[in-house]
Amino acid sequence: MSTTLPLAALARTTEPVTMLRRFLALDAVVTGVNGIAYLAASGPLGRLLGVDRGLLLAIGGFLTLYGIGVAVLGAQRVPWTVGVRAVIEGNAVWAVLSVIAVLFWLSPTTAGAVWVPLQAVTVGGFALLQHMALRAVKDAGQRA
Q1: For 128, which DSSP code?
Q2: Is the C or the N end of the chain the one with fewer CB within 10 Å?
């Protein structure tokens, strides 16, 4: 129960399934907005971040579709456990690969060197919150 108290404060509810749905919804909004921004402004953002325009377009398309998928999952009355686990794992992998990319593959500008790890921390945070909320659902004996 002690781990659900900070989650309840963040999610503004003590209902585990609602917590999970809210964390999925927040992830969907942030991911979707990020994807749309990459699609709509890949040129200027690419120059700002020091990332190839084509790469940003591809990432933007992926993030937009991923955000839609997370939104659909979070809109379910009781999100599907396998889907939630896939989102958690996908977010964790994205966070790790973002750090690896900025260290070993990309040659970002200063803004990019700040932005990429910052978004990795954000996505990793979503994974952690979703994992904790899913655990709270299970601990409450509810199905997700």
Answers
A1: H
A2: N
